[in-house]
Specification:
By secondary structure, the chain is an all-alpha fold. The protein is 74% helix and 0% strand. The chain has one domain (2-90).
């Protein structure tokens, strides 16, 4: 009995740790007002991220992994916008 409990605790801890490491950080708006269009796009990405998170909660995270993939792509788009603003800054624009 103790062995089964121990194994259950180990499996639970491992799955919790695995979910925590797979969790992605939500995009944040960090592009300045100097780049208004890029900032607006970044704000929309942050809003979309939140709506996808809401959908995951509403559907008990049973969306076939597609919502998680969408969030990964939103995070990638957020990073690309940040890089675009950085390049513009480097060129004095």
């Amino acid at each position: 009995m103790k062995k089964a409990l121990f194994i259950g605790i180990i499996i639970g801890a491992a799955s919790t740790f695995g979910c925590a490491t797979m969790a992605q950080q939500a995009p944040r708006v960090d592009i300045g007002y100097r780049h208004g269009n890029l900032r607006d796009a970044q704000e929309h990405i942050a809003q979309a991220w939140q709506l996808v998170s809401d959908a995951q909660i509403d559907n008990d995270y049973q969306l076939g992994g597609h919502a998680g993939r969408a969030k990964a792509l939103l995070a990638q788009a957020d990073e690309e916008l940040r890089l675009a603003a950085d390049v513009s800054n480097e060129h004095g624009r």
